[in-house]
Amino acid sequence: MKNIKTAVILAAGKGSRISNTANYVSKPLLKLYDMTLIERSIFNLNHKLNVKKFYIVTGYNHDAVHDFLEELKNKINVEINIVFANEWEKGNGASFLSISNIVKEDYVYVVMCDHLFNDSFFETIAEKNIENNKCYLAISKTLSQFNEFNDATKVKIKNGNISHIGKSIKAIDGFDTGFFVIASQIFKYIGNMSDEKSISLSHIMQKIADNNHLCCIEVPARSWLDIDTKEDLEKAKDFLFDAANSKSNDGPVSRYLNRPISNRITKQIANFPVKPNHISLVSFLLSLLAAIIIAFKGYSFLVLGALLAQLSSILDGCDGEVARLKNITSKYGGWFDQILDRYADLLLITGLTFHTYYLHQSLYVFLIGILAIGGSLILSYSAIVYDPASKNIQKFRMGRDVRIFIILIGSIANFPYVTLLFLALLMNIEVLRRLWVLKDKLDY
Amino acid sequence: MKNIKTAVILAAGKGSRISNTANYVSKPLLKLYDMTLIERSIFNLNHKLNVKKFYIVTGYNHDAVHDFLEELKNKINVEINIVFANEWEKGNGASFLSISNIVKEDYVYVVMCDHLFNDSFFETIAEKNIENNKCYLAISKTLSQFNEFNDATKVKIKNGNISHIGKSIKAIDGFDTGFFVIASQIFKYIGNMSDEKSISLSHIMQKIADNNHLCCIEVPARSWLDIDTKEDLEKAKDFLFDAANSKSNDGPVSRYLNRPISNRITKQIANFPVKPNHISLVSFLLSLLAAIIIAFKGYSFLVLGALLAQLSSILDGCDGEVARLKNITSKYGGWFDQILDRYADLLLITGLTFHTYYLHQSLYVFLIGILAIGGSLILSYSAIVYDPASKNIQKFRMGRDVRIFIILIGSIANFPYVTLLFLALLMNIEVLRRLWVLKDKLDY
Questions:
Q1: How far is B366 from chain A (nearest CA, A)?
Q2: B348 near A384, Cβ under 8 Å?
Q3: Most buried of the four, A218, A261, A315, B84, by CB within 10 Å?
Q4: What is the mean pLDDT of residues B188-216?
C-alpha cells in the first residue's frame, strides 16, 4: 500500500452557476450545516484518509479564501499550503497544472473542493492497492439521485483502464467523481499547454489516459455528490445527513417516532453555530422541568409533564446528529450526554413517584418508585457491556426511548401507579435477562 | 522474534522431599489453590506466551498424571502430548533427553513443572530476542525470600554466555529459574549418555554451555519460585497471591481495611473448589439481608445492618481475588459482580431511607434518599469512562468502599438522616466534579 499523506484540493473556480446564492463569496467558502466546503474537505481527508499535508489551489476571490485558510491553520493540526493559480480562469485543468512544479511527493490525492464524499467512499479509496506510476480516478458505474446526468463527466473503460473521459462521450462505462490519485511522474506526459485558451481537467486526464496511465477505482453511486447549482446545495444537505446518520442502534420508539422528528429539527438547527453539548443540556433542562410538573397533583400536570419528557427524549437525539453532521463528535460529548440522560431518567421517575404517592398515600409507592429508578439506572449501566456484546442478537433494544414512551402512555391513560409498577418490573427483569443471555458468552 | 508455540514440561520426578504431604500422588498433581501444578503451568504458558502445543514428560506415577492430563485435554483448547520417560529415575536430565527424538520444532520452551513464575517473568521472556541456534536459561541475579540458597542451581557467566552451571559452583553470577529456551539443533552436542547412571539437567546444560551455546535471560528475583519441600508450598501460596493481586485501583477504605481482610479470607477459601460468581452472589445476599435489617426501626438494627453491609463489602473483594488466583478471571464474572454491586448499593440506601423515614416522618427523606441512590448509581456509571481516563490523575477514588464505610460510620454515630444527606451531596457533587475534570480531556 502506498501511504499517501498529501492532498491537493482544487478550489479556484468561480462557481458561476451557484454564485446567485445569498451572501456568496466563493465556492470553497459556501457553508453546509455551518461548515465551509473547503473545511469539510480538509477535515474528511485528514480524518478518513489520514492526510497530513494540503495544497489548496485558489483563484477566484483568492483573498477571501486565503484569509479563511490562514485562520483555519490555527485551529487544526495539519500543514496547509495555499497555491494561487495565475491562470485559474482558463479552467480547472489550469488550476491543476499550477501545482506541477510545487508538489514534491510521489503520490497525492487530487480532490475537487465542491464534491462531497461519504465514509464508504473513503473506505474504498483507502483499501485500493495503488500500483507504481499509475494514476487513478474514482468512478461510479451509475449515478444516484444526488447527481445530474448532464452535469456529470463520463468515462469509458478499456481493458480495466480509462480510455476516454469527457462530458459528451458516448457508450458510457461510469462517471467521474472528482477524486483522483495522481503519481507526480505523469506530469511529463502532459507537456506544455500554456498556449491553450481553455484547459479542463478532463482534457489533461485524457492525455494521461492516452498514455495508458489512468486506472479507475469503483465506488458506490450514492457515495459522492457534485455541487454545481443552488439546488444542489439542498441535495447536499440530504446527502450529508444520510452520510452522518446511516448507522445506529436505536430502539423501536426512537426509530419510528423520535428519529424522524429529531432529524427534521437537526436539519434546521445544524445551520447555526449551535454546539451538541448545549443541545444535551437543553434536553436535560426540559426533562427537569417535566419531572417537576409531573410531581404536581392532577391529571393535566401528569400529561403535560409526560409530553415534555417525550419532547426532551426527541431532542436528545439531536445532539449526536448535529455532532456527526458537523464532524465534531467527541467521546466527551457522548459521555456528557449519557450522564445527563441518567439524571433525566432519575428525575422523571422521581416526579412520577411523588405524583403517585399523592394519589395513593402508601409507602409502597416509594419502594416501587425506587425499584423503577434503580432498575432503569442499572439497565443503562448494564448496556455499556451488553450493547457491544449483543450487537447481533439484539432485536428489540429496551432503552431510554422505550422507558420515556411507557411513561407517556401510562400518563395519558392516567395509570401512574401501574406505570411505576410496570417500569419497576420491566427494567429489573430486563437486567436479569441480560445477565442470563450473556452468561458464558463474553470473550475475555 | 522467534514465534515459539511449543513447550516441554518436565513432570517426571518423584519429589521425594515433598512426598510427605497429605494425599500426595505426584508432584505435578500437587494442588495450590485448588489447581494442580501441571495445569497451572500449561495454563500460564498458553495465556502468557501463547504456547499451543505441549509435550509433558512423565515418569513417577505416570498413570495418575496421564489420566489427569487426558481429562484436561477435554477442558482446554491446546495440544497435549504425553511422553513417558523410561529412564526418569536417572534424573531430570534423562527426562529431558527423552524428547530429543520427538520434538520436531526448531525452538521450544523447556519448563520444570514444579517452578512458578509471575507475569513480569513471562513478559521478560516474551520480549527477549532469541538468536539462531542459541539456547537460553532464564536466571535471576539474586534470590528472593521465596527461594533457598542451598537448593538453588547456580550459574557463572562469561562474555554474556553461561560458562558454568551446577549446585555447588563458586563465584556465582546468578541462579537457574528452571525455564529454558531450547534450539533443538543442540541435541547433537549432547551425545550419547545412555551409559551414565545419573543424568541431571545441569549436567546436560553444562555440555551446551561448553559449546558456547547457552545464553541467559535475566528476570527479576521475585518473579519465580521453586517448590521442593512441604514448606515451599506455603511460600508458593504467598507467591501466587502476590502475583495475582499486585495491581489494583482500590479506593482508600478498600486498600487499608477491606483488602487486608479479604486477602486472608481468599487465601483460605481459594483452597476449595469455590467459584468467584458464587462469592459475588453470597456478598450480594449479605447486602440484601443488611438492607432489610437496616430498614427496621431502632439503633441496634441500624448498626447490625451497617456492619453486615461492611462485611459484604469486604467479601466483595474475594471474588476477584479468587478468580485471579485460579486464573479464571472472566469479563462476564467482572460484569456480573458489578451489576450485583449496583443492586447492593440500591438496596442498602433504600433500607437506610426507610429507616430514616420512620424516624422523621418527612417526605423530604424520600427525595434525599432517591438522590443518594441516583447519585451512587450514576457515579458508578460514570466510572466506566472516568476510571480509565483518569488513571494518572486520580488520587482518592470515591467508590463503593467509601460509600459503604460512610453508611457504617453514620449508622454507628446514629445519624441516619445526616448520612443520607451527606451521601446525596457527596455522590452527585463527585459526578459533577468528574464531568468537569474530564472536560476536553477525552481522546476520541
A1: 7
A2: no
A3: A315
A4: 88
Residue A16: predicted pLDDT = 86
Q: Which residue among B370, B371, B442 sits closest to A331, beta carbon to beta carbon?
A: B442
Asked if the Cβ–Cβ distance from B370 to A350 is below 8 Å, we say: yes
Give the residue among B325, B167, B302 at the shortest CA–CA distance from B240.
B325
Please give the ipTM for the structure prediction. Answer: 0.85
Q: What is the mean pLDDT of residues B148-166?
A: 91
* Inter-chain residue contact B374 with A440, CB threshold 8 Å: no
B440: pLDDT confidence band, cut at 50, 70 and 90?
A: confident
Condensed to tens digits (0 to 9), the pLDDT of residues B186-196 reads: 888 787 787 88
Q: How far apart are CA B353 and CA B364, in angstroms?
A: 10
Which residues are within 8 A (CB) of A2 and not within 5 positions of it... i.e. 6 or more apart? A106, A107, A130
Give yes or no for A85 touching B (CB within 8 A): no
Pairing of strands B154-158, B174-183: antiparallel
Both B180 and B299 in a single domain? Answer: no
CB pairs under 8 A between A and B: 104
> Chain B closest CA to A377's CA: distance in Å?
7
Cβ neighbours of residue A443 closer than 8 Å, sequence gap 6 or more: B331
Cell 517473568 locates to B121
Contacts of A438 in chain B (CB under 8 A): 332, 335
Q: Which of A330, A354, A374 sits opposite B377 (nearest CB)?
A: A374
The strand pairing partners of B36, in sequence order, are B31
- Per the CB < 8 Å rule, is B373 touching A374? yes
- pLDDT interval class at B247 (50, 70, 90): low
For the CA atoms of B224, B227, B233, B236, the dihedral, rounded to the nearest 10 degrees, stands at 0
- Cell digits of residue A28: 470553497
Q: How many domains does chain A have?
A: 2
**B156 CB within 8 Å of a chain A CB:** no
Please compute Rg for chain A using Cα positions.
27
CATH number at residue B121: 3.90.550.10
A346 and B CB contact within 8 Å: yes
Q: What is the pLDDT of residues B71-108, one digit of tens each?
A: 999 988 899 999 999 999 999 999 999 998 899 899 99
pLDDT value at residue A189: 79
| Pairwise CB contact (< 8 Å): A363 & B342 | no
Q: Does B66 lie in the same domain as B30?
A: yes
Averaged pLDDT, B8-27:
90
CA distance B141 to chain A (A): 35
Query: Domain check: are B178 and B278 in the same one?
Result: no
Spatial distance between the Cα atoms of A146 and A113, rounded to a whole number of angstroms: 17
Q: Tell whether A444 is covered by a domain.
A: no
CA B380 to chain A, closest CA, distance in angstroms equals 8
Q: Which residues of chain B lie closer than 8 angstroms to A369, CB-CB?
A: 370
Both B425 and B349 in one domain: the answer is yes
Question: How many residues in total does chain B contain?
Answer: 444
**Where would I find the H helices in A330-415?**
331-360, 363-389, 400-412
Report CB contact under 8 Å: A377, B444: no
Band (B340; pLDDT cuts 50, 70, 90): very high
Cβ–Cβ gap A335/B366 under 8 Å: no
Residues B107 and B179 in one domain: yes
Domain range enclosing A320: 247-437
Query: Reduced to 3 states, what is the DSSP secondary structure of residue B435?
Result: helix
Q: Which of B87, B317, B84 is nearest to B193 (CA)?
A: B87
Taking Cα atoms as reference points, which of A441, A414, A424 lies closest to residue A355? A414
Co-location of A154 and A252 in the same domain: no
Q: Which residues of B touch A440 (CB under 8 A)?
A: 332
Looking at the structure, do residues A63 and A79 belong to the same domain, yes or no? yes
For B318-332, the pLDDT digits (tens) are 999 999 898 888 899
User: Helix and strand tally (H, E) in chain A?
Assistant: 16, 13
Q: Do A381 and B382 touch (CB under 8 A)?
A: no
